[in-house]
């Protein structure tokens, strides 16, 4: 059985915060508690409160503030000699690096976080850091390398009855199945994740699971209206908690659903919205996916083929440099579909 979801990144004086707390509220309270700790000369407490501040900034898309906050948290933890708090700060920094598309840095910081978590005896930060490594590999499309790690972390989370981590692992495995064409397995895993998240009152995890279900219903069944209904439910949760990144991905997915349904003008509007949101928070992968969707929608709406080809070629270079293999494969398929010479596409 799973208990209520909790947020282990809310530490020290902030343990009373809920996993569903508005990020604006988390930032306000975390900043206040951080200043109190700094004024009273308590570096360990400053490190713990600074972690919540860093995570709130990151999830709100405030990249520069998040970068400053996790580094300050690490310095405070090091001053206090708190190895586990140092690990948590590195985990936050590694997660931010992945969000920005700096994958080598993400691997390095998350690997160090896992090592320090084990050394400091904090199995939770060790697990979160390993999960971060697994997610980094998954996002880059290296499924063979990280598939077993996802399964291992899922088993560990199930044994501990930790709902939030179980939901994360289920969604990661589901996404890999979806991307390799096993839609039925993906749907079953997203469905289980949604059920666990709902029972555990994990609104963030539930919103991501609904997004996954909507994707499968759209691509496998062509069930546009049901997919849009699920995305609307997920969007409501994202707005309540101020989940900027999740909301942008929700909008991008809605664009996908419209595109698959042949509603290209509506798809274009959603891709443009998501693109602006991703750029505002320096979310490199989301930006690339929104650019791809927008290029395809514009092509369907009559954009000149040579312009489309130029856009896709530039996007391919960006993805080649960043190491996003799965997204690069998607661009390659689009290049074949929208080749300047129709004969090439055949």
From TrEMBL:
Keywords: TPR repeat
Pfam families: TPR_12
Keyword Cell membrane tagged: no
TPR repeat spans: 167-200
Domain of life of the source: Bacteria
Protein name: MalT-like TPR region domain-containing protein
């Amino acid at each position: 059985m799973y208990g209520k979801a909790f947020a282990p990144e809310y530490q020290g004086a902030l343990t009373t915060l809920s996993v569903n707390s508005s990020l604006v509220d988390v930032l306000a309270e975390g900043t206040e508690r951080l200043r109190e700790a700094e004024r009273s000369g308590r570096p360990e407490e400053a490190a713990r409160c600074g972690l919540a501040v860093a995570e709130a900034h990151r999830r709100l898309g405030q990249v520069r503030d998040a970068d400053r906050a996790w580094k300050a948290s690490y310095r405070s933890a090091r001053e206090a000699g708190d190895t586990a708090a140092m690990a948590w700060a590195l985990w936050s920094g590694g997660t931010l690096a992945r969000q920005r598309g700096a994958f080598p840095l993400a691997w390095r910081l998350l690997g160090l976080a896992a090592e320090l978590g084990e050394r400091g005896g904090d199995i939770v930060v060790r697990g979160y850091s390993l999960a971060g490594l697994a997610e980094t590999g998954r996002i880059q499309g290296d499924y063979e390398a990280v598939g077993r790690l996802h399964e291992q972390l899922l088993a560990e989370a199930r044994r501990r009855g930790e709902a939030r981590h179980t939901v994360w692992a289920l969604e990661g495995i589901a996404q890999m199945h979806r991307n390799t064409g096993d839609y039925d397995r993906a749907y079953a895993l997203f469905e289980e994740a949604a059920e666990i998240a709902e029972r555990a009152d994990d609104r963030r995890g539930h919103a991501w699971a609904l997004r996954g279900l909507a994707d499968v219903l759209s691509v496998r069944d062509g069930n546009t209206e049901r997919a849009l209904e699920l995305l609307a439910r997920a969007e409501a949760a994202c707005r309540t908690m101020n989940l900027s990144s999740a909301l942008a991905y929700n909008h991008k997915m809605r664009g996908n659903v419209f595109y698959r349904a042949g509603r290209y003008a509506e798809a274009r509007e959603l891709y443009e919205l998501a693109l602006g949101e991703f750029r505002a928070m320096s979310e490199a992968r989301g930006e690339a996916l929104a650019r791809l969707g927008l290029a395809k929608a514009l092509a369907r709406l009559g954009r000149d083929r040579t312009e489309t080809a130029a856009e896709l070629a530039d996007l391919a270079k960006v993805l080649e440099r960043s190491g996003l293999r799965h997204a690069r494969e998607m661009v390659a398929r689009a290049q074949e579909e929208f080749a300047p010479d129709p004969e090439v596409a055949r």
